[in-house]
Amino acid sequence: NSVTPATSPVTFPPAFLWGAATSAYQIEGAVREGGRTPSIWDTFSHTPGKTAGGETGDIAVDHYHRYREDVALMAELGLTAYRFSVSWPRVQPTGRGPAVQVGLDFYRRLVDELLEHGIKPAVTLYHWDLPQELEDAGGWPERETALRFAEYAQIVGEALGDRVEQWITLNEPWCSAFLGYASGVHAPGRTDPAASLRAAHHLNLAHGLGTQALRSVMPSRNQVAVSLNSSVVRPLSPTPQDLAAVRRIDDLANGVFHGPMLHGAYPETLLSATASLTDWSYVLDGDLRAIHQPLDALGLNYYTPTLVSAADPDAKGPRADGHGSSEHSPWPAAEDVAFHQTPGERTEMGWTIDPTGLHELIMRYTREAPGLPLYITENGAAYDDKPESDGQVHDPERIAYLHGHLSAVRRAITDGADVRGYFLWSLMDNFEWAYGYGKRFGAVYVDYATLARTPKSSAKWYGEAARTGSLPEVPGL
Ligand code: PNW
């Protein structure tokens, strides 16, 4: 008779991908090289008052020049996949017309380097760096931007489709639409709720047309997906009023994107709730059919749950919605909803650590999109990491965070979910948008004075998980 250990090792399926993720503007630097022109993030970060300390991605972590070193580091750690994004203005500086070969060549070299090291590339086409010229022509609230995206998708698909199997059209269109055009804490920094809803529709259309364009030029074995920062929205109390608040925010966070993408329609409750802001007349005949493309997989980005209630109309005070400081809300037509801090331990972003939310999220999409393979395309935590006197960086909090969330993924797989891989956000410390370089999400530490890279203890822990396919034990857990 065998003795059952108190805890058995948390083991993953053999083909499970162990990845890390980054995005172009957050790591590349070299913003004026190879014919690249400004994106909305260059303009925004160079506008006084928009980012912490006026920090920009001008140099970032200089990945454009150090990609070989970075790929070698991933290989040394044992990662089996890497998710990165292509900078649109590096490939198509004005957002229109012929591609710049130097720009495409950079990504081809990066992909070849990954493949030579046995690392599977996953390409995100749009991680928020819209060519400034397209914003000057109206940006995402305009239909034209979606048409231009489809052309850009085709160019990149033609250039890399023979060697990249995994494709993601958009990263977190919620952030592009609502942080970019409603609260204004992200580029282009506009604060127009009606425009943000138009932006959401044209991002959806870009996804649909971009998916068609990719498929028209790529081998059919390739997979096309989208990465949504799908929120887990919970009520403060189970009253009808608080449940109505959940419905409102769930429509604005999730339904506005997965409604058309997965089911071919916007939620009725979203259309009625936003009727005072927009009549949705820019949703043209055929748009929903174009957006409702069969997907090969769905990418979920998860950090923290969202807790809401019906607002007390007399209550005034700061909004605890964790989306940066702005007097403008990223939630159009939701003045009657109040946001609350989920109780519990938090990361350096102020985001509550809640792995059960990730399990909930995976199970929700398992029900909502039966048969669709899922990837966790981002999950991770910012901590105030500092090297010790011996130069090593110890981040036990991040190890605990990763252990908790990977265990939640494993539980979801046991419960019947088809999760094929996990991409830690982020491979290395980088430009955390409006927060600048102060928030470190990396598994690898970057010394911003020298740009030297040092794997933190979490990188070694995660690398061991990747090499063995099961989670190394964490002392004290
Ligand atoms: C995501 N919010 O951003 C992005 O995909 C990454 O580029 C980023 O570095 C990472 O998560 C960490 O922040 C988000 O306010 C930014 O809800 C803001 C929010 C969510 C995700």
Provide a descriptive summary of the structure in words:
This protein has 477 residues and is α/β, with parallel strands linked by helices. The chain is built from 15 helices and 13 strands. It has helices spanning 24-27, 40-45, 63-77, 88-91, 101-116, 132-136, 143-160, 173-181, 193-217, 240-263, 268-273, 287-291, 355-368, 396-414, 457-468; strands at 17-21, 81-85, 120-126, 166-171, 223-228, 233-235, 298-301, 306-310, 337-340, 374-379, 419-425, 444-446, 453-455. The protein has an 8-stranded parallel barrel, surrounded by 6 helices. β12 and β13 (453-455) form a beta hairpin. α13 (355-368) packs parallel to α14 (396-414). The radius of gyration is 21 Å and the shape is globular. The two termini are 28 Å apart. The model has no long low-confidence stretch (mean pLDDT 96). The structure holds 4-nitrophenyl beta-D-glucopyranoside. 4-nitrophenyl beta-D-glucopyranoside (PNW) is lined by residues 23, 26, 171-172, 175, 229, 301, 323, 378, 425, 432, 441. The site of 4-nitrophenyl beta-D-glucopyranoside has 12 residues, from loops. It catalyses: Hydrolysis of terminal, non-reducing beta-D-glucosyl residues with release of beta-D-glucose. Keywords: Carbohydrate metabolism, Cellulose degradation, Glycosidase, Hydrolase, Polysaccharide degradation.
Concise account of the structure shown:
The chain is of the alpha/beta class and 477 residues long.
Task: Tag the structure with descriptive keywords.
477 residues; alpha/beta; eight-stranded parallel barrel; three-stranded mixed beta sheet; 15 helices; 13 strands; binds 4-nitrophenyl beta-D-glucopyranoside
